[in-house]
Amino acid sequence: MNLPLLIAMRALHFAGALSLVGVSGFAAFVGGDLSPRLAMQLRFLAWSSVALLLLTAPLWLILVAQGMSADTLAVTLASGAPKTVLLDTQFGHALALRVALGMLALPLIARLGKSPALDRVAALMAAVSVGAIAWQGHAGAELGSAAVIHLAVDATHLIAAGLWLGALLPLMLALRGTAETSGRDEVARRFSMLGVVCVSALLFSGVVNTYYLVGTIPALIGTVYGQMLLLKLAVVATMLALAAINRWKLVPRLALTDGRAAERIAQHSAIEAVLGLGVIVVVAALGTMEPAIHEPIVWPLAWRFGLDIVTAEPALRDDALLSGGTALLGLIGLGFGVYRRHVFAMATGLVVALSFGVRAVQTVLIPATPTSFQTSPEPFTVSSIAAGDALFQQRCAACHGTTGEGDGPLAGRSPIPPADLMLHLPMHPEGDFFSYITDGMDGGIMPSFAALPVARRWDIVRTLEARYAAQMAMSTLLAVVTTQPVPRAPDFALPEPQGEAGTLGELLQRQAVLLVFASLPQSQPRLDQLRQWHDDLATAGVTVLAVTRSPDIRAVYALYERRPQIDGAPAPHVEFLIDRVGDIRARWRPGDTPDWTRWDALEREIASLTSMPAVDLSPAAPAGHVHEG
Question: Which residues of the chain are under the pLDDT cut of 50?
């Protein structure tokens, strides 16, 4: 598919649709009693807008069909794909509605400026036509309640943009074609009122759209989609500046019979119209791109605001609060000095505000990497953790040690001591560790592992996270369910499917799980006991999952045993109580208290499982953002 041609068709089609709603809206709500000459000019603009809309619609349809079929243009046309897209897709239905409304509007356009009632009907039809574009964009792919909200907001955004941008050229023609000062003044004031309403709607709907399509400030800065959106916002800000000059400076001069004011408003409107075309091109390009909420963030700056780190570290938090508070006092002193014209107070306040303000900013700003805001695409699974641990032991343990604590056999030979990763893990997002693994550190002392596949580098990050969570849970993961932070249970494929559940995660969607790692024949009496309790456990909302083989699963879950394993070997029998959220809430081995071989003791912990919240120590797999094709 020819992407530049597709963007051009989208831009021209949008321009026609927006111009139509702007021209008809101007005639209905701004122009008043149109002069014959202006009415004729508006009809010409409206006819041109409909012509542009109708001519570009089939070309856009063909290009979209070609993109869906992934064939050449000739094959796409011969296969009848455009007809299928038109009749069987939401995109085609919205396009057909817009074409039909454009054709139905032709008789109304022929009488534009002659009947206020018909002008309003034409404006309404044009508004519905341009609003239907929302169903052809990213908003049209949403599901559930998000679809209703996003579609309504996006349609509002498009209609408001059309009423404002599309009416700029009619405004310029009206100001230059109206000789009477009172007429120009009235037109300019009515347009200013319409502009305030439209801009307010644009700002509100723009914020909501950004939430759905971008999501976060880092995504706005660190993705191509977000950067294009920032370009659009910069152009719109320039247009708003010109509109503000018109509204607050030039419109009042019209009442003073200032002839130059009308000319300057017309000039500003022409500039705004040109900038508006630029906005339309950017919007047309954005519609062909993956939204920022789906893009991996590539952070372009060397620093980021580390409020997450600062708030987690008491010393940093106190430093930031003290510095920020002192800087605020300095600003108050500066304001007092300005108010009282006291030079010493102004100078002192300025020095205090700047010095402590810089200190506060330095405390909050922390070094960043290009992947600081990326999260692992690899789910938190046994296979990922096991693969990452194998690579870590092979590539990293010589320096960082088998547990990542910086005590490997080669640590003493390094000019820079290897970091204790268990100390650094809570101080950095997982994207930073991915960057360190990818690019290396300290001028090559830690080598780059960019040659490893991306998924394998994320596996190493996953195994570090699992080890950190296990270490933090060493003293809190007991045979008693508590509200202390607990680790996330790594997911895995069940050794034998249980009904429709093929993984631990799917099993947890039905009930909590008592995960039993058993060694035969030693564990056979306990397994027989749990089998006898089957009905009672099911009534209590727990499924027993016994694992007697699967060494990878056993090795990963051995990390979460409370006491270090003797000689690195897992305990012969251990049980984990996992809630439906997927958190390991308790761990029991024979000899622990309370004794889970007593039904009343186990029943009590199961009851606690459903009534106490928990705080995860391990990250969950990133949530998906579902779109319907």
Answer: 179, 181, 564-566, 614, 619-629
E strands present in 499-610: 501-503, 512-517, 542-547, 574-578, 584-588
pLDDT tens, position by position, 220-259:
999 999 999 999 999 999 999 988 888 788 877 766 665 6
Q: How far apart are CA 592 and CA 609, in angstroms?
A: 18
The per-residue pLDDT for 616 is: 52
Q: At what angle do helices 224-245 and 259-286 cross, to 10 degrees?
A: 170
- Are 486 and 584 spatial neighbours (Cβ–Cβ below 8 Å)? yes
CA distance 248 to 571: 78
**Closest by CA position to 605, among listed 596, 613, 597:** 596
Query: For 293, what's the count of Cα atoms within 13 Å in the CB-facing half-sphere?
Result: 16
The token pair at 243 is 């509109």
Quote the tokens at residue 161: 């943009």
Helix (H) or strand (E) holding 522: none
Res 192: pLDDT: 86
Q: Tell me the per-residue pLDDT of 360-372, one tens digit each, with 9 for 90 and over.
A: 888 888 889 999 9
Which residues touch 532 (CB under 8 Å, ≥6 apart)? none
Distance of alpha carbon 160 from alpha carbon 519, whole angstroms: 69
Predicted pLDDT at 257? 61
CB 385 within 8 A of CB 490: yes
Could you count the other beta carbons within 10 Å of the beta carbon of residue 98? Answer: 26
DSSP letters of 206-256?
HHHHHHHHT-SHHHHHHSHHHHHHHHHHHHHHHHHHHHHHIIIIIHHHHTT
Contacts of 133 by beta carbon, 8 Å cutoff, 6+ apart: 14, 17, 94, 98, 155, 158
Cβ neighbours of residue 277 under 8 Å, at least 6 residues apart? 15
> How long a stretch of residues is the chain?
629
Residue 233 makes CB contacts below 8 A (sequence gap 6+) with none
**Which DSSP string corresponds to 430-448?**
HHHHHHHHHH-BGGGTB--
User: 């999501």: which residue's tokens?
Assistant: 215
- Tell me how far apart the alpha carbons of residues 438 and 458 are, in angstroms, rounded to a whole number: 10
How far is residue 119 from each of residues 17, 20, 100, measured CA to CA in Å? 16, 12, 18
Asked if residue 506 lies in contact with residue 500, where contact means CB atoms within 8 angstroms, the answer is yes
- Residue pair 39/116 in contact (Cβ under 8 Å)? The answer is no
Q: How far is CA 623 from the centre of its chain?
A: 11
